[in-house]
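# nightly structure sweep
# worker-07 picked up a monomer target from the shared queue
# config: single-sequence mode, recycle default, output format = C-alpha cells
# input follows
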Amino acid sequence: QVRLVESGGGLVQPGGSLRLSCAVSKDPSVFGVLGWYRQAPGKQRELVATFTPGDRINYGDSAKGRFTISKDHGERMVYLQMNNLKPEDTAIYLCYVRFWNGVENWGQGTQVTVSS
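# output follows
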C-alpha cells in the first residue's frame, strides 16, 4: 500500500497557471507508472501525464504543450505544472501509481476549477 496526498488545486482564471503536488509515501522508484489523471463531472477519467518504465513521459492529448510533469525522488514528490489553463481543464486531478506487480493506487484528488 501507498499513501498519495495531492495539493495545489484551486480556482484560477483562464490562461492562468497552477502547480499540483503529490506526496508519495514510498520512494517513486518502486513504481512502474507514476503520475496524474483527471476526472470531470459526467466524464470518464482521463490520462493527464505519467512517468512510465524507463522514465519515459506519456502526456494526454489535452496536456501536450501546456502541462509538465516532474518528480523528486528525494522528496518523494510528483508535480504537475499546468499553464495556459482552460475552462475544460476543470476537473478533480488524481495522483496515480502502479507498482511493478500491477497493483494500482489512487489519491483522493484535488479540485481544479478554471473560470472567470
